[in-house]
Structures are given as C-alpha cells and as structure tokens.
C-alpha cells in the first residue's frame, strides 16, 4: 500500500538503459574477466599477424633450401658474451655447422655459437604485395648478409622456414575460422531468428532440422562432403568449399542461441508494446530485439570459431580438406604428425602450439563476452 | 510423462529415416563407385583387372541402378535387419560392424564417464570461486584439453609411452588377449590400452561440460533457495552440493545427447591414429574405398546411437527433474 | 651374397635351360633321411600326420641357402589395414608353377619341374612335380590346373587374369596327371615371365577337390546351397570360399587348401587384429640336407591402419623383417638411430622403378594446341633442361640417386647410359632455346610463355600425394624451376579414383607417377612405348593395340606404331635373345622420341631385419611383379 | 495485538551500532547500513519498516550472517542471548563457523518473501523440513517426518502427510508460505526473522498468514523480527517498530507511541501517506514525500533524510543527529528534537 507509492519513484530510478551505457557496462564487466581481457589481446595479435603475414614472415613460405632440411631452430639472440668477455649487443642468429650422414641419410646440424649473423629490422626485400594489395619491399626483420640461413623456429623437411610458413598458415586458418563463423552466423540468425520470432510450426520444423543435423556425427558428414567436392578445384575453391562445409554444421548452434533469445524476448513487455504501437516486424526485430542480444550472438560466435579451426586441422589430418601446397596450420600439422617428427624434429609441432593458444584465447574471450553480455552467465 | 516420451520417440523415428537417407546420400556423393576405386587401388599396386570382371561385379552388386532404387533396396533391407554386403570384405555388413560398434560404444561410454568425473569438481570449484586463481587454472586446464587436436594428443601419448615405458600401445588388447573371452586379466589388459583414447576423448569434451556447469551453477547460486538452505544452518559445502549443484546438473544431463556426435567424430580420429578396433577406422576405409553399404550402415548406426542417446538423456532429465515429470514449468 | 649389380646376364628362360636346371635340382636331392620340424613329431607319432617322407614329393624342390637353419620361431611383421593382401602375396602366397631367381634374371622351376615351348611361343608343355600335396594332403595334379582354367574362363565367375585374357586366352590340354599343354591363338613369348611373376599364383590357386563343391557344374545344387548360406548366387559363395589368386577374401577361409609354406591360422577378416600362419606340414620344398622347409614355424602379421603404430613396433624390435609401408625416406634416420635399441639392422632394397617421378604429358589432349605442343619433342626437351635435378635430389632425397630419365636401371641388361642421361643437365639457356624452338616465343606480363593460341603455357599436373608424399615436394620445386623459364606448372593433388577416371575422359594435361619398368623392362615398358592403360601419356594410342577401351582408340603416330609392331614380335618369340634385341630396338625409338620426362634414379630403399634372423640376403629387388621378399626364399630364413 | 508482556532485563537480541558495507571490484565501498541499534525481547515482535533499499533486509540477514561475500559488518556488535545461555556476538562469528550454523535455523530461523523461489523446486516439502530437523536434533528420519507432519498440520496445511511428499510448485502461494513457516519453526527457535513474508501474497492469504504468525508466536513465545514496507501490516502485528531510511534507523519505539506521535519528519511523512477511511467529502489528498530516495552513494554526511526533509536546516546535511529519547522507549534521530524548543514545537 502506502510505501509502495513511495517505492515507485525508486524503482524508476535507473533510467531506461541507453545503448552506450550498455556497451560501457558490458565492457566493464568484461574487464573483470582478466583472462578474457588478455585473450582478447592475444587473439587480436594473431589476426594482426594474419593480416601482415607477408611483412612479418622473413622468408617466402615456399622457399626451400637443400642445405637446411630439418635444420633446428636458431632462436633470435639480442646480446651475447664474446670470447674476450666483452658483450655483444644487437640482434643476431647463430650459424649452423652441418654435415651429411650418408648412411643415416640426413644432415646433422650443430648451432655454431662462434658464428653470428646480424639480424636487422625493416630490411629490404624483393618487392611483394601486402595482403595481395599494397606493394611493399621491406620486411619486419631479416639477415643483412646475403645467403645466410635464418630459421628462428627451425626448418621443415625441405628446408623451408617454419616461422614464415606458420605466419602464412595463420592467415588461412584464422580466416577460415572467421569466414566459417560469419557464414554460420548468417544462416543461424536468419533461420533461428525467424523460427524464434514466428514460433509455431515453422519453429518446430527448424528445430527438428537442427536437432537432426546435430545428431549426425560430423566426421562422416565432412568426409562425405569433402570427398564429394570436385577434386580438380583450385586451392581457393577448395578453401571456400571447406568453409561452407564447416559452417553447414556450425550454424545450428547459433540458430539455437538466436532462437532462444528471440523466444524469451518476444514475450518481453517492450516488444509487446512496440507491437501494440503497430511497429513493423522488421522494425521490431532490428530496433528492439536485435540490440538486446547482439552481445549474446557475439559471444556465441566467438565460441564457435575454435571449433572451426580444430575442424580444419582434423580434416587436413584425414587427408581431406586443405592440402599442400596450401599452407595452413592443418596442413603444417599434417607434416608433423609422424613419429619421425616427434623424435627428431619436434619444433615442427609449433603449429599445434599455435592452435592450442588461439583456441584457448578464443574460448576465454568468448566466455568473458558471454559473462559480460548477461551477468547471470548463461 | 509417457506421452512426452512417445512424442520424442516419434520425432526420433522421423529423424532416423532422414538420417538413413542422408547417410546413403553422403556415401553416394563421391565420384565413381566401389569398383572404380577398387581398380584404382589395384592399379596403384601395379596390378590390373580385366574390365569384363568389373562389369560382372557391377552386375552382381547392382551398382548400375539409379540412386533411389538402390536406396530403397538398402532401406527396406535394413528394416528386415539386413544391412547388405560389404563389397570389399564380401561379408554381411552386420557381421563386420557389430563388434566394432560395441567397442566404439564402450570407449565413448568410458569417455563420457571420465568427462563427468573431471568436469564436475572443476566446474563446481570454478563457479563457487568465480574469478579466483583456482577458477582460472581449472578452466585453463579444461580448455587445454579441448584445444589440443585429438590426433596430435594421441600420437604424442603413444610416442611417449614408447620412449618412457618401451611399450607400443596400439589397439585395445595385447596379443594374448585379442581373441580371449572376457576375464579379469583381459579387462585389466583392456584398461591398460584404453586409457589413452579415453583420456584423449574425455579431455576434448570436458571443457564444454565445465563451461556449462559453471554457468548454470553461477546462475543457481544466486537463487533464494540457497539462502534458505544456509539459513537452515547447513554447512556451506552441503548447501552447495545438495541444492544448486543438484539443480545445475539437470541441464547438464541433457548435454549427453549432443556430446555424443562430437565424441563419435573424435573417436574416429583417435582410433585411426591408435589402430583401435572401433567403427572409426572401418568407416574411414569404407568411405575411401566407397564400400557403400558398409559405410552407410556405420554412419546410420552411429547416428542412431546418438539420436537414442539424446532421447535417453531427455528421458533421464524428465526423470530427475520433477518439474518436467509433473508437466509443470 | 652376390651384389645384384654384378649380374648383367641376359634373361634366361624357356625350354632347354630350365629343364637343365630342374635336372640339377633333381641330382641335388640328397639321399640322407629327411628331417621335419619338431612341432610335427607328436602329430606323426599320434598318426594324425603321415611321416615326412610320405608328405614330401618324390622330387622335392631343393632350396639352396647360405646356411642350414634350425626349426622354430615366429616371423612378426605389420599389415597395413585388413586390405593389405599384397603383403601375403609377397611373403606366403608366391607359389606358382615357376618362379624368378633371386637376381630377377631368369625363371626357375617351382611346382612345375620342367617345361618346353615351341618356336613361335604358341604352345607350352609343363611337367608337374610328382607327389606334391595340398595343405590338406590331397595330391596336386593337372585336375586342379584344369579346374582353375575352367573357372577363370567362366564369364559368370568374376575372376580375371592372364588365363582368361580376352586377347589371347589359354587353351588347356591335359596329357596325364602330371603333364599338360598351354596353347595360345596368338604367340605368347612372355608367358614364363608372367607365370614367374606374382601373376603366376592364379593358375594354382584353386583346388578342385574343395572348390568344385561350390560350382554348379560339379554340384547341381550349388546355387541352392549358396542361397542357404546367405549369398545371392553360387558365384558369390564360391568367391567367398575360394576366391582366386591372392584376393583378400581367400585368407578369411581357414578350410581352403593351399600350396603355401604356411597355412592360415587366425584368418584375415575385417576385424582381425592380427593374421597368423602356421607351417604347412605338406610343404614340398627341402633344404640342401633334405630337411623339410620352412624353418620358421609361424607368421604373425599385426593388422594396423596406423602406419605410426607399425613404425613404433619396428622401432621396438617387434618386427622381424619388413620393408613394406614403413621403410620410407622420411623414416630412415629414425630407423637408423633405432637399430641399437630395436636389435635390428637395415638391409638394402633395390626398387624396380627407374625414376622417382615421371611427368607424362597428354599426347592425346582434346585441345589441339596443347596436343600439338605436348607432342613437340623440343618442348619436352626444354622442360627437361629447365629442371635442376641435382637440387631436387639434394632437397628431397638428401643426395640419394642421380639425375635420370625414364630408362632401364643400371642393374638391368637393357641399361643404356645415353637413354638414361639425355637432356638431364640443368641448363636454362638451352631450355629456353628449345622452348622457343617449340614456338613459345611470346610471354605475358607474369613472364609466362604464350602458346600459339595466346593462352599461357600452363600445365596442370595431377598427382596423388597420398601415394608418395615426396611427389608434392618434387613438383613444388619443379614449379619454381620451370617458372624461371616461363612455364607454369599447376599442382593438382587429387584422390585415386578421380586420377584414374580422368584418363578415359581425357581431361588432364599431365599425370605424375613413379618410373615402373626399370628392371622389368620387357614385362612393363609403359613409358618406353604405348603399352598399357598405364601408358597415360598415350592413353588413346594404347587402346588401338588390344587396349581395354577400343571405343576411344586413336591412330598412333608412326614411331609408336613401329614400337607396337616390334612388341608384337616380342610376344611372338620364345627366344630370349631375340626378344632382347627387339626390346633394344623399341628402346632406341624411345631414345629418339623422348616421350616422357624423368627426374632422378629411384634411390635404394631399405628393409628392417632383426639381427637374429638368418639367411636374409643383404640386398634384394623390390617390385610388384617380383614380390619381395618371396623370391628370396623366406622358407629358408631362420632365427638364431 | 499481543498482550503486553513485562520487559525482560536481558534482551534476546541486541544490535549495537552496526554498519554494513558492500565492496565491489570497480567502485568505492557502499555503506548500505550506516548505523543500526535494535533490541528484541522474547515474545515481542519488532517491525523493521522502510522503503525498499533502505537496508532493512540487509540488517535482518546480517543477524543470520547470510550476507553475500562482498558484504561485511564493518562496525558494531550483534549480541544474541538465548535464554539461560551465554551471550554471543554474532557479528564476530565466521559466517560458516560451527557456532554460527548451530544458531541458524535452530535458535534463529528465517522466512522469506518469495516462498516459490525460496524452496528448492526439486526436493519435496517434507525432505526440506526433515533435513532441518535432523540437522539440529538427532532424530531418525521417521521421527523427523512425524515432526514435519505435525508442523505442517500446525501451520494449517490440510492433509499434511500427503502434502509432505509434494513439490513446492504443486502448492498454492499461501500453502507454500505456510510450509516455509513450518520449516522455520521446526526447531522451535527463540527468534524468527520474517523478511516481508506476506508481500508476495494476496490480501486474504496475507491476513491468514499474519494471524498464523501471531498465533504461533504466542504458542512458542519467541521473539520476531518482522520486515515490511507495509504500515498496515505493522499496525497489525508489531509491538515495537523501527523506521529505517537509507541505512539509518530514524525512529524507533512502541508501535502505539510511534503511530500516535511520530517525531521524525520521515515517519510523519509516512503516516500522512496512509489513506484513512473517510467519507468522500472530507477526504484530504494523500501527500506523498517529495523527491526520490538518493542512492546510498550520495547519502549526505548528516541526516540521510535531508534531501527530502521539509524542515531541513544548517546542521542537517553535515552533522548526524543524535539518538534522542522522546518518550517511554521511543527514540528518534532528528536535529529538530535536539535544537531549541521553538523548532521542536514544529514537530509536536
């Protein structure tokens, strides 16, 4: 009774949330999730690498060298003590002592501490096009003396620079994840959205389909589809085909999320109000509903990316999906997945490390987003 | 309740029909048929077959017929419990796969259990001590499992067990036990081999469980009934385990359903790396050799299992959650 | 052990010589009492098994070996998945009427103790070894040969081999239990090589006594029984029980009588974790002292889809002899380091393939411009000179092998240095001269040469990396090297089925394969002339000469026709010397025409041999037709 | 109204000068309760009245130490003296300590506003009550269940034996609250804290529940801390009333005294905002309090009510008014009461 009347103004106190404040609020909640914050930066860094691949990679990913097959990592040194005890400063890499073992059929490498090849930043290189567009002729770093080996992370079986391949692989693998998610996001929002908004038979039909797709073990699905796609397609075509295949499964999860939010929002007062005001469906959806769960969608999408990346590697492992000479983390791991590598060239597992890190980060990032999106952490 | 189960059951039958169709479609997708890839592999060996032989076989296998006809024969056959013949093995498909499907189930079942055993404590801890160092470590641990590509993990474990214990852990049994009957020593031998694949599979799925459990629990912990429980004077751990955790588990039960497909896929890869006698390697091989009835049957059965798994988990959920059982919401 | 390279004898085969050898073998049969494996003694005493003297033929095959061995032990190896019947063919099943000698130079008697051929190679007379028994004790006679021929030639039964070769099928004439004749409408000079190769298994793979019960001709209700057993018709049931040759399914039937040194114990099924064999008490070979072979009691083949598992097994000393599957270039250092721990050493395996990679341009391309270009010798020479083979050898094969064209290997009597080495030196200028001579003078913006129709000269090379990973590596390097002279190579890594489907449909520029026929020059001259469907570079020309798809046949150019005629003469001759001469003429044309481009001599591979395994030759050839290690008489191998 | 019972010298619960602060990672601490002094005696009902967010629930929960982790009792003592036992300072106990748990539910129990969400949906009513009983008194499950049934019967739930096996969502709101009460009484506590137990119920049920509570209080002779924002309820159930505003107890005393002669401007405003039954003609308009409650963050240094007080003058924003005795067990915090009488007249 009485005090209720007093309550009303209190209840009104927090004025209707404005988008900015919402975003700000989300950002604040997100920051609380320190791991997520860190992850965000790491992911960002990886994408930067993907973007600047040509600039960052010291060598051409295809450039092979007979003399340095399976050369171990040189590492990158910045200072060292000279024989006379004085200090040497400035980045450099050590040279190799190599000899061929004719019986074992391999080169044995010894890092030669005495030989130092200086490494410089922003070195001249033969002209290339950054991201295939901007013409450039300078690399982030490289050796200054000609014809000296630079294998910071070591070399593969053809003496190709692992670091450079890794950097270029990043572009493919990360973009495939992104592209796949974008695609599934599109399907997910459209299909899930309508299902959720209209409900009824359409909804249940869609949900059956989703259920159905999710009940299929994905691997055979991929295998079949991947095997089915014309093998005389170009690398690019395959690339897109793969993304489509991946998103064919990916959209269901997102559709479920979107639908769920729609269902719950549909009954919210402000939506009903808007309907009573005679606002068009489109307006209601775009103006009233979407803003209310973009955050969730973003979170869900973020959490979908790792799946895509893993899927890409899995497909490559099975010999489907991307194939050499395309350089992706999947194909790189394909080279690494044998006992020989584990035993004698473990550095070739570096792509695996990247996969792990990126996936970890994406997960934490996504979790953080979701926790921030709604404090109840659903 | 009964009516609820019935509804789900009908839905399931529908799904299964669809699955069978898609399964068959998938194996028909790749160019050529079993015989073309058969010839190809022979030729790769340096051997050649007389085309007439191939023609003969094509007749006998009825490969010439249009898609729908083949599908219908296959499907009706299955309804009568006849999964058809495997081209490569010249044997009834059922005879070939039941054993492997069994092992797949066994491994995946063990993986599910392992997952829960790992995920429960971590998830609860992560939720109760939200944003604590422990929370971070626990979740990181969980996610690393998710992040390591299965095949890589399996391979590394195999190699390490060779380097450290001088043992080559492949397959599911030591030579002596392969064809033996189940006995305690055989079970022990089995466990010694099975732990790697189970571990690999489990770690891959745990993170997801942890995440869900943590989220649900965070949700539940805020509910008034928790305060009520505290106001009763229950010790904190009991409060949490008896009420919010119990609640948080409900939605988790239903996750079993969609855990399965991922598990199945994962086990395919792991099995290939570790040469497990599960359905995985056979599926892979049959898909590459286009041994269509075999591949079709495996895909179908795996899907059926997942669908049934979903059904079971739904029923389980209904059973443990009175609100659903009494049709209230 | 004699080094293989020392043997450059002309291939000995056919009538006289072989008879002599057989005689020699006969004389060698020692009088002293024949021994048998201890594991059989009990059976003999209990009477379940007749004494060894009765089990052995009157004239057992004597196998000479480095040393007299001792009985016992299990030979462990690894099988690549359940479909790897090849391993069985190469270790257990290689028992034909005749066999190759260890140097792959001549043909020796085996189940047939002697033979003769008429001059024009249309009629062969064989004499079977008397008293040879199947693994179930039933005598092996011409009845079984007759049954096999009958079954192979039954169109309803889907078995195929040289026996029912459409173009020149076998006509059998049985003389008595141990003597029979093969007649051919066309001359068949290559018959003995064929029969000595793995193909020879076919004719002795079906025992009449057992297999005829599934054949309507001998059992009118065979069809009914087949259906009762759950098979749609008798053919499928018979196939399930007996199959033929070395078909996978044969080894899933433990009751099937065989002539192998070992009989199947744990059968090869789709779910088999391992396949095991135990000695065949009726095996018909003895060592120099008359002890019944084989020495080794059992075979144990681990079935694994996972190469990595097999690799680990070998490293862990759990494999006694193997070269198949695991002995890859990549693994070599691994196995080399593992010798100590694994208690094995690496033996030498000389591949029969002449070349690591053969680039076959499609001479019959649908696009007239490409067809004309690819058939242009200058173009091919240009390409060849643009390839820096030394570099490829260095990068991909760590210096193993030498620049080589597709030509007979140095070990082969047909080796011709000029043929092997022509156009192999790396010389871009020269390459460019030749390319321009071929009319590729203009280039586009990217420096790619333009064909007469103004299109850039881009060659799409189909390759199956799954088969030989190094192909991709080689091609990636060639890509860069050829780009330097303005030729663009596009890698097209595809799967097997498609690879083969592209041939008849003729939608490929070039296909890549290994250089088979480095040793088996006469048997498989696929790269020297349009020979078989595997002569991809001239697929449509081949069809005009008893190919499998006459409907798409095309008229070959004259030099090709000339080669085909010469080869028909080879078929028509039973004289090895004459055949060799004819082959040399064919190779001369090959040298002149330079149809396909090779990269480097296939480097020697290796085998993994446990240190306690004896009588294993240090070096052996490997090929499909020459099914290593079977010709090395594993029956004489033993554990110390 | 319950009959006046003689004052007991040692009060059952004495809340002295308690301050409760909430910490949050990215803001300054918020003092939700600035200074609370309350006294409860056995058999009596103290009503804690005020607008939502004034800190009354927080205070109540503080007594059972049920506050969230980020809340802390930064000052003052909560002295609890069960009859014939030593006094314990609840404020000093660890919230999950054994001694604290021994008090919860056993000596002090609590009923909540939303009976639906306050009961576990997946356990039967019976289980939830049995648990409580078995926790504090070593009874076998059977005996516990007997007690439960009789309790349910006591709180007027028809067919208690069957109802014990039902789930909360199968009961009506009223029955649920009765079950809640039954659970609270299970161990015959000395003090019952009722946090707006009737807010979620419709008027008739509300009345029933209130009657029930009064009746039970007589039977058990327990003290009751009753939290509400509804003056009507207060009038019906309270012996004493404490009025809270923005974390301060502004006025406290015998319910008659306070209702008859409210001395604090806020209390007065509250009273004026109660609709009184009168013929339409001579009704005068309700005068709601002007302005809105500021958030605890920008509570003035001095009297919390300053921002809305019609009489506010110099000292109000800066100086905190003292507790002033204004009658028999009737205190209030207002500068007007301590200033010269002329101004005091204004409030008289």
UniProtKB/TrEMBL annotation, chain A:
The chain crosses the membrane at residues 35-57, 172-200, 212-230, 236-258, 297-324, 344-365. It is a multi-pass membrane protein. SUPFAM superfamilies: MetI-like. One of its GO terms (biological process) is transmembrane transport. Residues 170-366 form the ABC transmembrane type-1 domain. This is Peptide ABC transporter permease. Pfam families: BPD_transp_1, OppC_N. CDD domains: TM_PBP2 (cd06261). Keywords: Membrane, Transmembrane, Transmembrane helix, Transport. It is found in: Cell membrane. PANTHER family: OLIGOPEPTIDE ABC TRANSPORTER, PERMEASE PROTEIN, OPPC IN A BINDING PROTEIN-DEPENDENT TRANSPORT SYSTEM. It comes from Devosia geojensis. It comes from the Bacteria. The keyword 4Fe-4S does not apply. Gene3D superfamilies: MetI-like. Belongs to the binding-protein-dependent transport system permease family. GO terms for cellular component: plasma membrane.
TrEMBL record, chain B:
Signal peptide: none annotated. The chain crosses the membrane at residues 101-128, 140-165, 194-213, 252-273, 293-320. The keyword Cytoplasm does not apply. InterPro entries: BPD_transp_1_N, MetI-like, MetI-like_sf. One of its GO terms (biological process) is transmembrane transport. It is found in: Cell membrane. Keywords: Cell membrane, Membrane, Transmembrane, Transmembrane helix, Transport. GO terms for cellular component: plasma membrane. It holds the Pfam family BPD_transp_1. Residues 101-313 form the ABC transmembrane type-1 domain. It is a multi-pass membrane protein. The keyword Repeat does not apply. PANTHER family: INNER MEMBRANE ABC TRANSPORTER, OLIGOPEPTIDE ABC TRANSPORTER, PERMEASE PROTEIN. Belongs to the binding-protein-dependent transport system permease family. This is ABC transporter permease. It comes from Devosia geojensis.
From TrEMBL, chain C:
It is found in: Periplasm. It holds the Pfam family SBP_bac_5. InterPro entries: Peptide/Ni-bd, SBP_5, SBP_5_CS, SBP_5_dom. Coiled coil: none annotated. GO terms for cellular component: ATP-binding cassette (ABC) transporter complex; outer membrane-bounded periplasmic space. One of its GO terms (molecular function) is peptide transmembrane transporter activity. PROSITE patterns: SBP_BACTERIAL_5 (PS01040). SUPFAM superfamilies: Periplasmic binding protein-like II. Its main location: periplasm. It comes from the Bacteria. Residues 108-531 form the Solute-binding protein family domain. One of its GO terms (biological process) is peptide transport. Residues 1-33 form the signal peptide. Keywords: Signal. Belongs to the bacterial solute-binding protein 5 family. This is Solute-binding protein family 5 domain-containing protein. It comes from Devosia geojensis.
């Amino acid at each position: 009774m009485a005090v209720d009347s007093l309550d009303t103004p209190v209840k009104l106190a927090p004025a209707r949330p404005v988008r900015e404040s919402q975003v700000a609020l989300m950002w604040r909640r997100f920051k609380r999730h320190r791991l997520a914050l860190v992850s965000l930066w790491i992911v960002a860094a990886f994408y930067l690498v993907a973007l600047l691949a040509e600039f960052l990679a010291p060598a051409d990913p295809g450039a092979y060298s007979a003399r340095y097959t399976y050369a171990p990592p040189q590492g990158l040194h910045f200072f060292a003590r000279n024989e006379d005890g004085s200090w040497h400063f400035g980045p450099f890499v050590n040279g190799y002592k190599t000899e061929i073992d004719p019986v074992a059929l391999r080169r044995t490498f010894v890092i030669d501490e005495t030989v130092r090849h200086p490494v410089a930043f922003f070195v001249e290189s033969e002209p290339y096009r950054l991201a295939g567009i901007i013409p450039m002729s300078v690399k982030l770093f490289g050796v200054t003396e000609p014809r000296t080996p630079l294998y910071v992370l070591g070399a593969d079986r053809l003496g190709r620079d692992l670091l450079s391949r890794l950097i270029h692989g990043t572009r493919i693998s990360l973009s495939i994840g992104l592209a796949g998610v974008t695609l599934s996001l599109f399907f997910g929002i459209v299909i899930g959205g309508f299902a959720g908004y209209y409900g009824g038979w359409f909804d249940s039909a869609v949900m059956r389909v989703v259920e159905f797709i999710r009940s299929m073990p994905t691997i055979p699905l991929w295998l079949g589809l991947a095997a089915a796609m014309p093998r005389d397609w170009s690398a690019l075509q395959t690339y897109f085909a793969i993304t489509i295949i991946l998103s064919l499964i990916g959209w269901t999860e997102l559709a479920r999320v979107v639908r769920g939010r729609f269902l719950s929002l549909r009954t919210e007062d402000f939506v009903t109000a808007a309907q009573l005001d005679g606002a068009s469906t489109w307006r209601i959806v775009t103006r009233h509903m979407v803003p209310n769960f973009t955050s969730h969608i973003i979170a869900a999408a973020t959490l979908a990316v790792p799946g895509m990346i893993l899927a890409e590697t899995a497909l490559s492992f099975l010999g489907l999906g991307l194939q050499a000479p395309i350089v992706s983390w999947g194909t790189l791991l394909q080279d690494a997945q044998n006992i020989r590598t584990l035993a004698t060239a473990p550095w070739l597992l570096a792509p695996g490390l990247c996969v792990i890190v990126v996936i970890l980060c994406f997960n934490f990032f996504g979790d953080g987003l979701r926790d921030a999106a709604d404090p109840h952490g659903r | 309740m009964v009516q609820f189960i019935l509804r789900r059951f009908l839905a399931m039958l529908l799904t299964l029909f669809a699955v069978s169709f898609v399964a068959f479609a998938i194996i028909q997708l790749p160019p050529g048929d079993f015989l073309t890839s058969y010839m190809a592999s022979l030729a790769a060996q340096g051997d050649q077959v007389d085309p007439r032989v191939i023609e003969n076989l094509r007749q006998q296998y009825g490969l010439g017929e249009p898609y729908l006809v083949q599908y219908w024969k296959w499907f009706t056959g299955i309804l009568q419990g006849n999964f058809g013949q495997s081209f490569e093995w010249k044997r009834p498909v059922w005879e070939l796969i039941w054993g492997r499907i069994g092992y797949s189930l066994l491994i995946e079942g063990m993986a599910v259990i392992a997952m829960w055993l790992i995920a429960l404590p971590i998830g609860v801890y992560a939720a109760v001590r939200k944003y604590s160092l422990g929370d971070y470590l626990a979740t990181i641990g969980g996610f690393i499992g998710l992040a390591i590509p299965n095949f890589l993990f399996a391979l590394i474990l195999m190699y390490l067990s060779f380097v450290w214990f001088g043992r080559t852990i492949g397959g599911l049994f030591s030579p002596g036990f392969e064809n033996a009957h189940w006995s305690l020593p055989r079970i022990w031998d089995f466990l010694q081999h099975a732990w790697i694949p189970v571990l690999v599979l489990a770690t891959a799925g745990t993170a997801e469980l942890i995440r869900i459990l943590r989220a649900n629990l965070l949700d539940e912990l805020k509910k008034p009934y928790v305060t009520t429980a505290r106001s009763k004077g229950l010790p904190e751990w009991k409060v949490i385990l008896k009420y919010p955790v119990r609640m948080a588990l409900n939605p988790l039960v239903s996750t079993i359903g969609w855990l399965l497909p991922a598990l199945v896929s994962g086990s395919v890869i792991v099995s290939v790396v570790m040469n497990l006698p599960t359905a995985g390697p056979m599926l892979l091989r049959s898909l590459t050799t286009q041994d269509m009835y075999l591949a079709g049957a495996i895909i179908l059965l795996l899907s059926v299992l997942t669908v049934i798994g979903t059904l079971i988990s739904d029923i389980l959920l209904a059973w443990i959650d009175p609100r659903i059982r009494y049709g209230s919401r | 052990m004699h080094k293989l390279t020392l043997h450059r004898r002309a291939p000995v085969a056919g009538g006289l010589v072989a008879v002599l050898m057989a005689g020699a073998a006969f004389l060698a049969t020692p009088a002293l009492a024949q021994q048998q494996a201890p594991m059989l003694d009990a059976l003999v005493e209990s009477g379940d098994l007749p004494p060894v003297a009765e089990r052995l033929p009157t004239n057992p095959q004597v196998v000479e070996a480095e040393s007299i061995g001792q009985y016992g032990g299990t030979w462990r190896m690894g099988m690549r998945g359940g479909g790897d019947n090849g391993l069985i063919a190469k270790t257990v099943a290689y028992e034909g009427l005749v066999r190759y000698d260890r140097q792959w130079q001549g043909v020796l008697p085996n189940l047939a103790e002697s033979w003769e051929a008429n001059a024009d190679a249309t009629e062969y007379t064989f004499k079977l070894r008397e008293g040879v028994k199947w693994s179930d004790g039933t005598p092996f006679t011409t009845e079984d040969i007759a049954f096999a021929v009958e079954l192979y030639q039954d169109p309803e039964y889907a078995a195929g081999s040289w026996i029912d070769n459409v173009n020149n099928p076998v006509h059998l004439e049985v003389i008595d239990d141990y003597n029979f004749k093969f007649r051919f409408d066309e001359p068949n000079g290559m018959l003995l090589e064929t029969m000595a190769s793995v193909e020879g298994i076919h004719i002795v793979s079906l025992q009449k006594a057992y297999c005829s019960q599934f054949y309507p001709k001998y059992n009118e209700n065979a069809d009914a029984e087949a259906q009762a057993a759950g098979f749609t018709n008798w053919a499928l049931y018979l196939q399930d029980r007996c199959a033929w040759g070395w078909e996978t399914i044969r080894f899933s039937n433990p009751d099937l009588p065989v002539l192998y040194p070992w009989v199947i114990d744990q059968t090869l099924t789709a779910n088999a974790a391992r396949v095991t064999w135990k000695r065949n008490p009726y095996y018909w070979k003895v060592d120099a002292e008359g002890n019944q072979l084989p020495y080794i009691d059992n075979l144990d083949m681990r079935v694994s889809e996972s190469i990595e598992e097999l690799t680990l097994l070998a490293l862990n000393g759990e494999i006694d002899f193997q070269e198949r599957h695991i002995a890859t270039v990549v693994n070599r250092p691994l196995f080399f380091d593992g010798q100590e721990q694994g208690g094995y050493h690496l033996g030498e395996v000389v591949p029969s393939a002449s070349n690591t990679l053969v680039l076959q341009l499609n001479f019959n391309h649908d696009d007239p411009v490409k067809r004309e270009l690819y058939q242009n010798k200058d173009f091919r020479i240009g390409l060849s000179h643009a390839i820096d083979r030394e570099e490829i050898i260095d990068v991909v094969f760590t210096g193993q092998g030498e620049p080589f064209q597709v030509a007979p290997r140095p070990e082969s009597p047909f080796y011709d240095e000029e043929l092997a080495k022509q156009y192999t030196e790396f010389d871009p200028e020269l390459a460019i001269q030749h390319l321009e001579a071929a009319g590729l003078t203009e280039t586009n913006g990217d420096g790619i040469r333009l064909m007469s129709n103004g299109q850039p000269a881009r060659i799409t090379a189909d390759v199956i990396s799954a088969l030989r990973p190094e192909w991709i590596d080689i091609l990636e390097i060639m890509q860069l090297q050829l780009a330097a002279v303005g030729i663009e190579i596009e890698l097209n890594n595809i799967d097997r089925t498609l690879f083969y489907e592209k041939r008849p449909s003729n939608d490929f520029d070039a296909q890549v394969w290994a250089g088979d026929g480095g040793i088996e020059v006469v048997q498989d001259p696929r790269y020297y002339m349009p020979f078989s469907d595997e002569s991809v570079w001239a697929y449509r020309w081949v069809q005009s000469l008893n190919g499998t798809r006459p409907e798409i046949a095309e008229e070959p150019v004259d030099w090709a026709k000339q080669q085909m005629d010469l080869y028909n003469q080879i078929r028509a001759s039973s004289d090895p010397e004459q055949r060799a001469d004819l082959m040399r003429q064919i190779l001369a044309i090959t040298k002149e025409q330079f149809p396909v481009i090779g990269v480097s001599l296939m480097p020697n591979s290796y085998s993994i041999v446990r240190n306690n395994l004896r009588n294993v030759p240090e070096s052996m050839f490997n090929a499909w037709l020459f099914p290593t290690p079977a010709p090395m008489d594993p029956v004489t191998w033993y554990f110390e | 109204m319950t009959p006046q019972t003689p004052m007991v010298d040692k009060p059952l619960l004495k809340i002295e000068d308690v301050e409760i602060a909430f910490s949050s990672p990215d803001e300054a601490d918020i003092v939700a309760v600035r200074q609370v002094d309350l006294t409860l005696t056995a058999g009596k009902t103290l009503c804690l009245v005020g607008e939502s967010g004034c800190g009354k629930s927080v205070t109540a929960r503080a007594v059972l130490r049920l506050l969230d982790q980020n809340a802390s009792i930064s000052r003052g003592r909560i002295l609890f003296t069960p009859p014939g036992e030593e006094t314990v300072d609840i404020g000093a106990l660890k919230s999950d300590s054994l001694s604290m748990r021994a008090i919860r539910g056993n000596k002090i129990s609590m009923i909540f506003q939303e009976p639906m969400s306050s009961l576990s949906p997946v356990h039967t009513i019976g289980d939830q009550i049995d648990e409580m009983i078995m926790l504090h008194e070593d009874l076998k499950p059977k005996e516990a269940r007997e007690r439960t049934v009789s309790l349910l019967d006591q709180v007027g739930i028809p067919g208690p034996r069957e109802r014990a096996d039902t789930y909360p969502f199968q009961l009506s709101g009223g029955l649920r609250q009765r079950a809640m009460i039954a659970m609270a009484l299970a161990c015959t506590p000395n003090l019952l804290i009722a946090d707006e137990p009737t807010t979620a119920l419709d008027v008739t049920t509300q009345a029933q529940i209130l009657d029930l509570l009064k009746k039970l209080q007589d039977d058990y002779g327990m003290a009751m801390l009753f939290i509400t924002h509804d003056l009507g309820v207060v009038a019906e159930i309270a012996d004493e009333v404490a009025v809270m505003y923005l974390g301060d107890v502004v006025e406290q005393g015998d319910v008659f005294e306070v209702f008859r002669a409210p001395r604090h401007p806020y209390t007065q405003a509250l009273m004026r905002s109660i609709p009184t039954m009168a013929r339409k003609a001579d009704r005068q308009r309700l005068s709601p309090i002007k302005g809105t409650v500021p958030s605890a963050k920008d509570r003035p240094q001095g009297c919390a009510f300053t921002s809305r007080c019609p009489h506010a003058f110099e000292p109000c924003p800066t100086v905190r008014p003292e507790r002033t005795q204004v009658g028999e067990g009737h205190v209030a915090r207002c500068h007007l009461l301590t200033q010269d009488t002329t101004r005091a007249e204004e409030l008289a």
